[in-house]
Predict the 3D structure of the following.
Amino acid sequence: MTTSINMTANKTKTSLSVKIKMIAYWICTILIALETAAGAQWDLSRNEFVRGIFNHLGYPVYLLTIIGIWKIPAFIAILVPRMLLIKEWAYAGLFFVYSGAFASHLAVGDVPAAWIGPLVFMMLTAGSWYLRPASRKLANK
């Protein structure tokens, strides 16, 4: 009887931890997806805010077009099931974008208000990648 109760308690704990992990995954993923979609639109429209940041950091404005275009498939890849290898590349690309933005702001001596956003999105990207369910991971070979 005690074994049965312990097994039920363990199943409940496991089930709860799986649910919490899945909720955390979707929170990270949705936030990254929204930022990626908005970022693509801002980059491609070369709005004044983004142009100002790029000028401040010393990057050419044409880079916005390149980054903006690549954010579109990244947005799709992290949301849809399958396409596992593309998903890995999308996560890597987004991590490079946010870590590069973070490092760039640090390099020019910006205050935390300028680099905290890229740092948060870098961590959310890593969190989404780490927490993704097995069905969204490449098989270990």
User: Anything to note?
Assistant: The mean pLDDT is 92. The radius of gyration is 19 Å. Residues 23 and 61 are 37 Å apart (CA to CA). The chain is about 80% helix and 0% strand.
